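Input record (one chain):
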Amino acid sequence: MHRLNLFIWRSSRVSSLKTGLKRLAFRWRGYRLEHLRNRCRILAYHMITPSLNGFYPQTQTDVFRREMEHLAANYRVLPLEELGRRLREGRSVRGCIAITFDDGFRDNYTNAYPVLKALGLPATIFLITECVDTGRLPWFIGLRRLFMETTHESLDLEMEGGRVSLNLKDSFHRKQASDRVMAWVQQMPDEKRKNILEELHERLGGALMDPLENIMLTWDQVREMSNNGIRFGAHTVSHPVLRATGAAKLLEEISRSRDRIWQETGLPVSTFAYPFGRRSHYPRETPALLEKLGFVCAVTTEPGTNDFHTPIYELKRSPPWEFSLLSDGT
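The corresponding structure, as predicted from the sequence alone:
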């Protein structure tokens, strides 16, 4: 026990030392040393909201504002397609960064757009075009909402090769359960996934659960933003797991999404974001298909920075390391 306590104490001291060094580097703008390397970052956001519910992919509005102010002061913020062209052509990307949002939530217009516009920052929003057309929730947000709002305390499901009992007694366990079910349904073909979601809706939420309104962007908002520095990229029609679709469906999801945005904005669409975004979520031939369709670049959710050796149709996205220190009083 003494050795265990000593190990914990030493680990805590090492962690505190590392945090202290990071804070010192942050205070003296040590993060700008990264700009000496010919690498760039791409940021990925989803919802921008005043408060967080713990189930949706959200960033608080005041946190987002601080981050954007930090970027405006310390980085060269470029449209994603320009960053992609620089990488393709071997031009410098030192100190460059791009801002992206996935899915097309309306709070990108109400909460993020005013901040970006005030600071003169470009950004790219990747649209699930079916959701913008209909105003309906993306299916994965609907699944999260079922678990977030259910009053049931447990759920038995035939999943993962057996019968599983999920604890739903509090928010922590409901979030755990939603993570587990999400990982399970991501492995399914579209039709099977839809059947499971319908079953979950009936068992957890009831047939009359009210739909959420005003959660997705409208095309009028898209057009307004496209006239004021915001670009729009394709994110498929319905946000399927591309690895679970056939070749014809893969092409349809990508090309129809691109064409719908072009139709509504009158502007060509040159960027694409993979649904869910890990390499395990799309088939190996997808980058070649994107090149054939004429996209300049595409982004994943694989973390890291990008340079000339990063595949242009598999660019990485992750925040700068100093973001974690912006609101800790340093």
